[in-house]
Write a structure and sequence with these properties.
CATH topology of the largest domain: Peroxisomal Thiolase, Chain A, domain 1
Number of domains: 2
CATH architecture of the largest domain: 3-Layer(aba) Sandwich
Largest sheet: 5 strands, mixed
Helix content: 25-40%
Mean pLDDT: 91
Radius of gyration: 19 Å
Strand order of the largest sheet: 1-7-6-4-5
């Protein structure tokens, strides 16, 4: 019996740290205010010349090394991102070029903070169908490009980073046991990237407002908690398991209060929930990818562990996977 599983993991985090103390100098906020409301102490910020594709490539190389797979053996590259270098070419194609993975098909997925799990489920289907054998799934974000540093409700939340994994068929009961993806477009206005309307041929307007993240935090909180709890419950049921069978939950790192509320709603002790938001903030699609890498390296996830990956994101989209490690 074979299934599709993760055979290699990688991650990359920019060197620059932006602490709460640094933010106190930019906006009217405090370390205590930020920690109390979000659980975040610091986050990473990519350099001015560091592109999303650069982050993606670095995490990809580590994942390929961990999987002991040459780039030539890749059939598929999927990058989950909402902060690509440009509208085109795709980040996935830039990664393919950098890795010299000339045999791989390549495309991006846009599902905000749910992007990594959407990409994971998509890649799994290509392998199960027999079309491809080895897939590289990357989540990479330079989300700070969209931050309004005058808006204390959003500038404290986000950071940059990338995580990657290699998927292939695995033997036995291991692998991605179940998948769940969902969308509730009616909540799309709760979190979005706003930009001023502009006419490309209008020469009278000499200035252009940069795109920026806008969020309705209070309204988003409840929807996020319910979406993640529902997604995890459905994925566990589809796997033929009970919540008590789960050894570790790796949730999207959006806000520590959201994570705690999801754990309570699922009836799981916080000790089973992996949290690293204090170090990195919300890295959008990259959050779960990096958290999964760290959970494995810290041995919170071991061979045989039943793992739930669960997320929500702007759109509003949610997703969950159950993985037998």
């Amino acid at each position: 019996m074979s299934n599709v599983g993760i055979i290699g993991l990688g991650h990359y985090l920019p060197k620059k740290k932006l602490t709460n103390a640094d933010l106190e100098k930019l906006v009217d906020t405090s370390d205590e205010w930020i920690i109390t409301r979000t659980g975040i102490r610091e986050r990473r910020v990519a350099g001015r010349k560091e592109r999303t594709s650069d982050l993606a490539v670095r995490s990809a190389r580590q994942a390929l090394s961990d999987a002991k797979l040459d780039p030539a053996g890749l059939d598929l590259i999927i990058v989950a991102t909402i902060s690509p270098d440009s509208n085109f070419p795709s980040v996935a194609c830039l990664v393919q070029k950098a890795l010299r993975a000339d045999n791989a098909a390549a495309f991006d997925i846009s599902a905000a903070c749910s992007g990594f799990l959407y990409a994971l489920t998509t890649a799994k289907q290509f392998i199960l169908s027999g079309l491809y054998r080895n897939a590289l799934v990357i989540a990479a974000e330079k989300i700070t490009n969209f931050i309004d540093w005058n808006d204390r409700s959003t500038c404290i939340l986000f950071g940059d980073g990338a995580g990657a994994c290699v998927l292939s068929k695995v033997k036995g009961p291991r692998g991605i046991i179940s998948d769940y993806m969902h969308a509730q477009g009616r909540f799309g206005d709760l979190m979005m990237v706003k930009s001023a309307d502009r006419e490309p041929l209008d020469q009278k307007t000499k200035t252009m407002q940069a795109p920026r993240i806008a969020m309705q935090g209070k309204e988003l909180f409840k929807v996020a908690v319910n979406s993640m709890a529902d997604a995890a419950t459905v994925a566990v049921q589809k796997a033929g398991m009970k919540l008590d069978d789960i050894d570790c939950v790796v949730p999207h790192q959006a806000n520590d209060r959201i994570i705690a509320a999801v754990a309570k709603k699922l009836g799981l002790p916080k000790s089973k929930i992996f949290v690293n938001i204090d170090k990195y903030g919300n890295m959008s699609a990259a959050s779960i990818a990096v958290a999964l890498y760290e959970a494995v390296k810290q041995k919170k996830i071991k061979r045989g562990s039943n793992v739930v990956l669960v997320t929500f994101g702007a759109g509003l989209v949610s997703a969950a996977n159950v993985v037998k490690w």
